[in-house]
Amino acid sequence: MFIIALLCLVGIAVAQQPHPCTSPPQWEGRIFSSNEKQHDTMRGKISYDATYRRVRIIEDFEVGDDEYAFDILSLFDSGLEFVYDLKAHNCTRRPITEQWRDFGIPQNARSYGEAYIGSSSFPDAGVLITIWGGNFTIPSVNVTLSYVSTWTYKGCLPVSRTVYSDTYGNDVLSIYDVTVGISDPNVFIPRRECLTAEEYTMRQALFGTPNKKN
Ligand SMILES: *[C@@H]1O[C@H](CO)[C@@H](O)[C@H](O)[C@H]1NC(C)=O
Ligand SMILES: *[C@@H]1O[C@H](CO)[C@@H](O)[C@H](O)[C@H]1NC(C)=O
Ligand SMILES: *[C@@H]1O[C@H](CO)[C@@H](O)[C@H](O)[C@H]1NC(C)=O
C-alpha cells in the first residue's frame, strides 16, 4: 500500500516535470538589453533565423555617454558579420568568433517552473511563461556562464534571457512584439554599402539561398 502510494507520488512528480517546448525557428521582434557592469544598453529590432543560423539586428547602442547606431548582420554558417555604422555610414566586415546561441530552450536546461507575468486574476492581464536555466561555456575563453531564460507557455516564444557572470557582468535581454516568420527574406542580404559592386550584382546567389547545414 505504502509502495503504491509512493509510486503514485513519483508518477505525479514525473508527470509535472515540464518538458522544454519548441520555439519557432524564425521570428522577428523588438529587443532591449542592458549590462550594468559594462554600462551599456541596447534597443533594437531583430530578425532571427535558427534554420540558417543568421541574425539581423538594427540597434541603438549606448555605452557610458556614447551613443551609436548599428545595423548588424551575422551569418553564422558563413562565419561572417557585416557591421554598418548608421552614424558614420561605413561598413566593417569581420569574422564571427563567438558560437551560435540558439533562442530555443537548450536540451540540458533545468526547469524553474511556470509563472504569470502580470496576473491570472483578470482575463488578458497576464502571460503564462515557462522558465529554464543552466550554464554554458564560451570555448574561446573557457568561461562558464549561468543563464535563466523565459518563454511564453503558449507558442514557446522567447521573452527574456539573463546571463550571469563575474567576468562580463549580468546581461539582461527582453524581447517584445514577436512575430513568427521573416517578413522580408532579403533582410539577411548584406546592405549595398557592405558589398563590392560585383558582390552586390550576385547578392541573391551569394546570400539569398543558403544551403542547410546539418
Ligand atoms: C567608420 O567611421 C568611424 C567614425 O568616423 C570610425 O571610427 C571607424 O573607424 C570607421 N570604420 C571603418 C570601417 O571605416
Ligand atoms: C552548471 O550546471 C550544472 C547542472 O545544472 C551544475 O551541476 C553545475 O554546478 C553548473 N556549473 C556552474 C559553473 O554553474
Ligand atoms: C576550462 O576551465 C576549467 C576550470 O575553470 C578547467 O578545469 C578546464 O581544464 C579548462 N579547459 C580548457 C580547455 O582550458
Automatic annotation (TrEMBL):
Keywords attached to this entry: Signal
Membrane-traversing stretches: none
Signal sequence bounds: 1-15
Record keyword Transcription present: no
GO biological process, one term: cell-matrix adhesion
Gene Ontology MF annotations: calcium ion binding
GO terms under cellular component: extracellular region; lysosome
Protein name: Mammalian ependymin-related protein 1
Organism the protein comes from: Adineta ricciae
